[in-house]
């Protein structure tokens, strides 16, 4: 994990030397002492201030480096507007929309249903949340410009300003917190193995030896596989070289016989199993992960507002989190009790 170090540069010592020289030329010992003492005091005060800044930044870096619960690193909720929200609201005319990065291929999360009455309309659990955010921020649930982005482009899209938010089954991680800010978690899941029902693969274990595994590029699944292969948790003969832009592409590779298994978030893998009855989840989840809404690091007001929206979304029993879960996900996830309720949020404090 990258840690930024502050390198203090002390300036102004030439001026202090010139002042001391002038005092010597004047041959006024008292003045020399006064000047030297005054300069030294100023320099000492400046040095102490620099030390305090260095210690503060080092503490922040250490906190990031020691991050063990990334889902708890978000800001408390607030309804107040700020510069990020003001910029969204200031967009003229038809451009006055929330620009959101989403998936259009994740069944029941963010996808285009060809059988729906409105051709091309995005649907799913993540999409419901996007409409809820747009309604709160802009007063219109449909004031949204959706941008379909691949897995490995989620963070660049935020940093480049192409989107205001990413709501795309994005796991909150310590490393990602260096690049973007996250809301409180809105869903709990974990990595699982997806394979054909006839496969001898039994889960995330030695049965993956000599097997080809597909993951999405830039995903937490791929990072986990790389880590576990290096540490010996995953068999050395397991082939993890196949990566694709989007999670659904792994299912296609599996169907074509180009890989033997897929490792993905259990919540997504369950939806993929619902799309193809010849595959199934193998074994239990071997990680615990949380989805969050991602935003720019300095968009504090937007982060706080989204967290307030999530509070309201959880509490709305008629058309909130539970209603959306029941509509989109209950058919595939009701066997997992932890998935059937929203995770309780925890917040950090920052001035």
The residue ranges in which pLDDT falls below 50 over 5 or more consecutive positions are 1-64
From the spread of the alpha carbons, the general shape counts as globular
Number of helices: 11
Specify Rg, calculated over alpha carbons: 26 Å
Mean pLDDT: 84
Beta percentage is: 15-25%
Characterize the structure shown.
- The chain is an alpha/beta fold and 351 residues long.
- Helices cover 39% and strands 16% of the residues.
- It has helices spanning 13-25, 29-65, 83-89, 125-138, 154-159, 220-231, 247-255, 266-275, 300-315, 321-328, 330-333; strands at residues 98-102, 105-106, 110-112, 122-123, 144-148, 165-166, 181-182, 187-189, 191-196, 212-216, 239-244, 261-265, 279-282, 289-291, 294-295.
- It has a five-stranded mixed sheet with strand order 11-10-12-9-13, with helices on both faces.
- Helix 1 (13-25) packs antiparallel against helix 2 and helix 4 crosses helix 9 (300-315).
- The radius of gyration is 26 Å and the shape is globular.
- The model is unreliable at 1-64 (pLDDT under 50).
In short:
The chain has helices at residues 13-25, 29-65, 83-89, 125-138, 154-159, 220-231, 247-255, 266-275, 300-315, 321-328, 330-333, and strands at 98-102, 105-106, 110-112, 122-123, 144-148, 165-166, 181-182, 187-189, 191-196, 212-216, 239-244, 261-265, 279-282, 289-291, 294-295.
SSE blueprint and pairings:
Blueprint lengths: L12 H13 L3 H37 L17 H7 L8 E5 L2 E2 L3 E3 L9 E2 L1 H14 L5 E5 L5 H6 L5 E2 L14 E2 L4 E3 L1 E6 L15 E5 L3 H12 L7 E6 L2 H9 L5 E5 H10 L3 E4 L6 E3 L2 E2 L4 H16 L5 H8 L1 H4 L18
Parallel strand pairs: 1-5, 1-6, 10-11, 10-12
Antiparallel strand pairs: 2-3, 3-4, 7-15, 8-14, 9-12, 9-13
């Amino acid at each position: 994990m990258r840690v930024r170090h502050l390198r203090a540069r002390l300036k102004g010592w030439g001026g202090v030397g010139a002042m001391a020289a002038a005092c010597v030329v004047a041959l006024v010992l008292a003045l020399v002492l006064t000047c030297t003492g005054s300069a030294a005091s100023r320099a000492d005060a400046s040095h102490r201030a620099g030390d305090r800044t260095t210690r503060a930044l080092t503490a922040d870096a250490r906190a990031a480096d020691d991050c063990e619960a990334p889902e708890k690193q978000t800001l408390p909720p607030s309804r107040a507007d700020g510069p990020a929200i003001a910029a969204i609201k200031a967009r003229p005319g038809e451009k006055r929309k929330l620009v959101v990065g989403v998936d259009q291929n994740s069944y029941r999360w963010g996808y285009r249903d060809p059988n729906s009455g409105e051709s091309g309309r995005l649907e799913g659990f993540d999409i419901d949340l996007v409409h809820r955010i747009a309604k709160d921020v802009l007063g219109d649930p449909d004031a949204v410009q959706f941008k379909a982005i691949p897995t490995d482009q989620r963070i660049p899209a935020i940093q480049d300003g192409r989107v205001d938010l990413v709501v795309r089954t994005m796991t909150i991680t310590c490393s990602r917190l260096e690049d973007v800010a996250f809301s409180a978690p809105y869903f709990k899941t974990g990595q699982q193995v997806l394979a054909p029902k006839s496969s001898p693969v039994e889960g995330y274990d030695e049965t993956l030896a000599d097997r080809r595994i597909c993951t999405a590029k830039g995903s937490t699944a791929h990072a986990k596989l790389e880590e576990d292969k290096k540490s010996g948790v995953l068999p050395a003969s397991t082939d993890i070289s196949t990566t694709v832009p989007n999670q659904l592409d792994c299912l296609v590779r599996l169907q074509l016989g180009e890989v033997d298994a897929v490792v993905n978030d259990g919540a997504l893998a369950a939806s993929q199993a619902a799309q193809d009855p010849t595959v199934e989840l193998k074994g239990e989840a071997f990680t615990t992960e949380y989805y969050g809404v991602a935003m720019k690091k300095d968009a504090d007001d937007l982060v706080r507002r989204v967290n307030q929206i999530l509070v309201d979304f959880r509490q709305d029993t008629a058309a909130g989190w539970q209603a959306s879960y029941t509509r989109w996900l209950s058919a595939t996830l009701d066997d997992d009790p932890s998935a059937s309720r929203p995770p309780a949020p925890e917040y950090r404090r920052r001035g």
